[in-house]
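Sorry to interrupt, but I need a hand with the structure work. Could you write out one complete protein record for me, on any chain you like? Could you add the entry underneath, on a fresh line?
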Amino acid sequence: MNRFALTRRQFHLALMTSAAALAARSKAQESPAQPADTSPTSAVNSWLPVPMPPEQAQKVAEAVKSMQKTLESLRSCPLPEGSEPAFVFHPYPLQKERR
C-alpha cells in the first residue's frame, strides 16, 4: 500500500482545512470596507459592467421591491407538508407531421 495514500475522509478534511486557511488569509489581507451606498441606483449598478441611466435603475429597483413584496406575501401563507399542487401538467407526446 502506498504510504502517502489518503482515505476519503482524510482527503476531505485536508481539502476543507486548506480552503479555510486560504479564506482566512485572504480576509486578513482585505482593506477596510468602505461604507456602502444604499441608493437604489447603486444597488442595481453594482453588478452591471456599464452603469444604467438613473430613471431606468429606478424602475428596476421598483420592480425588485415589488417582487420582494410578492414573495413575502407568498411566504407568509403556511403550506402544510404533503400538499397537493395547484395544477398538474400532463404533456402530450409529440405527434409526427403527416404528409
Summary: The two ends are 67 Å apart (CA to CA). Residues 85 and 91 are 16 Å apart (CA to CA). The longest helix spans residues 54-76.
